Description:
Blueprint: E1 16-22, E2 25-30, H1 31-51, H2 58-87, E3 92-98, E4 101-106, H3 113-138, H4 145-163, H5 172-185, H6 188-217, H7 223-250, H8 258-261, E5 265-269, H9 274-284, E6 288-292, E7 298-302, H10 304-309, E8 324-326, E9 332-334, H11 339-348, E10 353-357, E11 363-368, H12 369-381
Parallel strand pairs: 2-3, 5-6, 9-10
Antiparallel strand pairs: 1-2, 3-4, 6-7, 7-8, 10-11
Helix pairs in contact: 1-2, 2-3, 2-4, 3-4, 3-5, 5-6, 6-7
Amino acid sequence: MPDHPDHPAPPRPPGTFKVGTIAGSDVLVSSSWFLIAALIAVIMSPRVEEVQPGLGIWKYVAGLAFAVVLYGSVLLHEASHALMARHYGFPVTSITLHFLGGMTAIEGEARKPREEFMIAVVGPLTSIAVGVAAVGLWFVTPDGLLLMAVEGLAGANLLVGVLNLVPGLPLDGGRVLKSAVWQLTGSVHRGTLAAGWGGRVAAIAVLFWPLAQEQVLDTPPDLIDFLLAFIVGAFLWTGSTQAMAAARLRRRLPSLVARDLARRALSVPADLPLAEAVRRAQEAQAGSIVTVAPDGATVGLVNETALVATPSERRPWIPTSAVARSLEEGLRLPVGLVGEELVLALTRTPAAEYLLVEDDGSIYGVLTTADVDRAFRESAAR
């Protein structure tokens, strides 16, 4: 899907703060990040005290600084996803840093296995590259807090890069597996289901990890280990389940064809009495009414709900424009929209009616969300 810079940006998710932009995408920080940053500061404080004794309360500030640096590398990971997605023409609305890392909001789905693979794999490879670079810096960094930060950066990024390649959604490795199965079978649906089940297996493995931790690392698990295992396991299970549900949903989207769902539209002057507009529409067997200016330009769409709510005895005395919505940005759509592209177009500008136009700008008809919902339910029942 081509990028659409003229589309209005979606509303910022609640509980997030904008801190900048990268490649035209908002960089947001979730309020949950401050919790994990404080936790990292507390966890790192004993190590800071060991490396640099006598800092007092400043040891927590040093730990917080490490959290900022660490999430800076997470931002690089997510930015690589965003840049690769934009390379393939996908709009990227935002990059969000949150409790468990980061998320890049990419509109649309990959059209080919190669696109899915490249957008997914570039993130872990970026983290591994940052980790390797930090390992190189370790040899030339003097002892002290800076060396501690370099060591932490190297270990964290190598760990994030490798773990993100685990073949299960919602991890990047799950998208890599999805692209491989998609390439082999020719079915993106099968690829998503395979990667979804991989994510569920990974979730179960994470839940059981504390029980195996002592045998593997010779370190008995504590309450925090079990808590983190539960949080990560729940995240993986929920993400994989949602991806599988979305895949089943997306299988039904190709049945949504704007041209097939369009209602015939009747054009009337905006100041024409509503009763006369309704009479003309019934006579022409038109399902919708659009209003036009004196110069013939289409200026509004009659809202069916507002029309029905207007008493018959009032209709001769009010203009049709009184129950019409102005044609704002996003309410004029190409008639060739199909499936997911159609759903995305409706999501960008929520409305009850949309004007469908041909490539030359001529009116084809009117699409209502009620008709789209009905078609979707009928496809689900088949």
